[in-house]
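Below is a typical protein record.
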Amino acid sequence: MPLDNSESEHDAHIEDPYESHDLLPHPSQEAAEADVADRTQDDGDNSASDDNSPMLDYDAAKENELQLIEQARIEQETQDIEANWRRRLRTSTSTPSDASSLVIGAPLGKNLTAIEAASRLVTQWEAIYDQTLSSTPAGAPSVLESLTQARNQLAALQSSVTEDVETPLNSLQDHKQTSIASRIQTLEAALEESTFPPEHANLSAAISLYRTSRIPYSSNWAIIYAGHLVDFAPTYTS
């Protein structure tokens, strides 16, 4: 039976629907290739990060070490400052009570007898005189007068036979009145020479406070500020 050429040709020209698509890349193939490329890049980044991590760890450790060293230095410096302060405090508090003071009129001590007080007064004036000779020789003659007076007073007490010389001065009313009168006299002399208004006000206030007994006889220091009595202090440095 003869073949139908037309049908044969028609069959020959039927295209396979899968042939044409095999010639072009599939979308799923592109996505797969892109994913592989991304993973490859990520692996490269991770590898680079892993390579740098030891260096980063070293830098962090070094920085932390420097911070610890600086903190230790600050703590040691603070401890040294505190130790020096405590050492100075112990030195000042352990100073003997009979140590001579260069402050004119400074308390000589507590519960002293007349002879003890006179002896310490001589020692005090001797220290003041030596200091004056080395710093301001022009003022030495007046200091020498006070020193001579203190020596004469001590000599008189040492030759006295009365019991009062062995009695604590704080219990002698006459001594209290004499001491206050002497302080007022010293303040009045300073007031006459004062030319600084705030100092003049404080000196005037001190004289008035002594006379009205608002500053009693004691071994404490009266603190006067702007012409007003502020407080009392046990020592000159406090």
Notes: The longest strand covers residues 228-233. Residues 27-93 form the longest helix (67 residues). The CA atoms of residues 102 and 128 lie 5 Å apart. The chain is about 65% helix and 5% strand.
